[in-house]
Each structure stands twice: as C-alpha cells, then as structure tokens.
C-alpha cells in the first residue's frame, strides 16, 4: 500500500506563533540545537529571525568569530523565538 500524502507532516507547532505552520525543510545547524529549532520553529519565524540577526550583526558591528558576539546572537535568537524581550535594532518594527 502506498503511503498517502500527509499535509500535516510538513507542519510544526511554532513556539513563537503558537500555531501549526510550515516547518523548515532541514535543521539550520548540524547539531541538536538545529534539530530542536526544526522541530519547534516555523519557517516563517526562522526567516524573520535571520533578518533580525543580520540587522543586529550589522548595527552592532559584530564579528561572528568572536565568542562573545556568538553568545549574544544565540541569546537574542532564543529570546526572539520565545517571545521574550530581545534587543531590537534602532528603528526596527516587527512584521504584522
């Protein structure tokens, strides 16, 4: 018997938006944290984070080879995805 297409297989309950949304096609990192993000964060929320991450790196002149900069970005990522109070770039207005 052929397995039928299951549209829910491509959804994840997004921890940011608290609803089922399309998931990332693959983990964003090749480790347990990447798998956790794929399992709990929608593609929409992840793409919004990537835009914010770019703004934070540019505005704060961060070097991602700097251990403290990486720690800062990881903390802000988790805060953003968990709807906690995260650092916002000057003039940043979240989408809808």
UniProtKB/TrEMBL annotation:
MF terms in GO: iron ion binding
GO-annotated biological processes: cellular response to oxidative stress
Entry-linked Pfam families: Iron_traffic (PF04362)
One term under GO cellular component: cytosol
UniProt keyword list: Iron
Family membership: Belongs to the Fe(2+)-trafficking protein family.
Function summary: Could be a mediator in iron transactions between iron acquisition and iron-requiring processes, such as synthesis and/or repair of Fe-S clusters in biosynthetic enzymes.
Protein name: Probable Fe(2+)-trafficking protein
Species name: Moraxella macacae 0408225
Lineage of the organism: Bacteria, Pseudomonadati, Pseudomonadota, Gammaproteobacteria, Moraxellales
